[in-house]
Amino acid sequence: MAFGLTQCGGEGRMEKKGKQASGLGLRSTGREEREKEWAEGLGKTQDVTLMKPLNTTSFIARQGYMAILDFVVAQIWLSSLKHLYNVVICLKYIFSLYGTSLSFFFFTKGRSKTGNIVEWTSKDLLRGLEEFVPIYETRPIKNNMYGMGFDHSFGLWFMVRWLKPDLMIESGAFKGHSTWVLRQAMPNTRIVSLSPRHPEKYLKKGPAYVDGNCTYLAGKDFIDFGSVDWGKLLRKHGIPDPSRVLVFFDDHQSELKRLKQASKFGFRHLIFEDNYDTGSGDHYSLRQICDQAHIRGGGHSCFWDSDEARLRSKRKSFWEKAVETDELCGKDDAWWGVRGYMRDNFNHSNKAISYKEHFQNSRLVESVLDLYWELPPVAGPSLTHQTRYDPARASDPIIEDGRFGMFQRIGLARLDASVFNGYTQMAYVQISGSMLSREDA
Predict the structure, then answer these.
(1) Which portions of the sequence form the region Disordered (predicted)?
(2) Which residue ranges make up each domain of the chain?
(3) Counting beta carbons within 10 angstroms of the beta carbon of residue 314, is it exposed (0 to 12), middle (13 to 18) or buried (19 or more)?
């Protein structure tokens, strides 16, 4: 089982070999269904401006006929770049993505016990994308709104295929899209799926996926991840070593809680689908926990007239999920978690915590964290036309803005732009030791 290694980030900055390799929170009946499901079980296209064409007559009149040759050469050169129309955009848009003002948003790696890095590189991710696009196009659930989009579907498929676990566990199946992705990555490996509502129930309303080689703890048989007798279940599946199991969480539960539970049962390799940024989301995430004032790039200002506040307000006009200061900060300027709260269970449960408690949570996580790696977006926003997540709060994309030829060659241009709107910093972590024993101590 070829598990890789990397470091945790203060806010999820990726450590790498070679070049850096690096949903939808709308109010709706679909999202309410997912929230209700767990409650029962647990008791804008970007406005761009093209560069204006040069007025040839005025140009010659001002510069003279000796400038004609330069003008013609320039026109030929510009014509050769027609396919890069996504890049020829107004400076306002470019600066909103990559301006020097982003110094407030840079991520820097924090501390981990070992300082390990993942085995895969940016080239591996790029090759994986080429292979995955045609697979994704065969998905049974074409419209997976309120479930995983393309970025996280690719990330899950890529990591599972690379890690090759002996058993796959998913907590939160929804309509079964993630189960389908797991199956594409590992055609013959057993899956255990936990979900308050069985995916087959969604077949009455439209497409869903039910796997024939999967043990479902769903519907009337549902058991929450933290209440399963995993020792017994793993023995039933012939798995003597829980460290050879991969657990995928897409259940909108506190990731600190899930990390403690996974550690208790001996699981070491975890993927968190919704790894929400500070000030957003419906549960306490690892990214929020890693966001600490003592880490360079971490911590935030709650002053309304600060540079950070002005930048946040400006970026909100470009990115729907960008977090403004009034969303970030709560009572007594509490910026950690979400306005000083540790959310859980689709935000049906939340608890106010002090910064001291938030800091202690980070030290607890750091004490067992051998690896932390955030999936980068598959491509830059000028290529995908996504308008939701703030690119300044993410790793550099696998395919950077301006590389439209590659974006098109791989087949990403064939996909509907809506599938790129669900990015929420999916994270892979590897842990060791027992969090409970450390906490009790």
Answers:
(1) 1-38
(2) 29-46+106-440
(3) middle
